[in-house]
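Lecture notes, part 5. Sequence design as translation. It can be helpful to think of inverse folding as translation between two languages: the language of shapes and the language of residues. The source text, in structure tokens, appears below.
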């Protein structure tokens, strides 16, 4: 297997915030299957009630590295930050589609980086369905 070292960083505003850890775990396991990866351990979700950081956090260790997500539900629309890092090839559009179909995207921003030797940004081969500004800006 040729190692890819691809890292997708997502910052999005979503209309339907998940707040049930078991539902978030199921969502993550489905996402991993949809991007043709394999769960090595997890998915682990926990709800944080800490003011200013209130929301659901998930970490899933995949065979080729990890996926992490935190959703802040104190704001409307909710804010989601997501990292997908894998040594195997994957299609970011599948992740964007998964976010849209499950949570409804109000805004989507991303960086897709090749971390093989230096941090090179990778353009997508097909456009997303959502406005995708670059560079990453804060969701308001």
């Amino acid at each position: 297997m040729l190692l890819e070292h691809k890292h997708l960083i997502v910052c999005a505003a979503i209309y339907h915030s998940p707040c049930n850890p078991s539902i978030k775990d199921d969502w993550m396991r489905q996402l991993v299957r949809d991007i043709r990866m394999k769960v090595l351990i997890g998915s682990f979700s926990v709800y944080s009630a800490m003011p200013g950081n209130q929301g659901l956090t998930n970490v899933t260790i995949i065979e080729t590295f990890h996926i992490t997500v935190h959703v802040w539900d104190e704001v409307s629309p909710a804010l989601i930050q997501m990292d997908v890092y894998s040594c195997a090839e994957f299609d970011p559009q599948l992740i964007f589609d998964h976010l849209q179909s499950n949570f409804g995207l109000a805004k989507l921003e991303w960086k897709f980086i090749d971390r093989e030797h230096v941090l090179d940004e990778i353009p997508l081969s097909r456009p997303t369905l959502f406005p995708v500004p670059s560079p990453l800006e804060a969701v308001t």
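The translated text above is only one of many valid answers, since several sequences can fold into similar shapes. The first strand starts at residue 6 and ends at 14.
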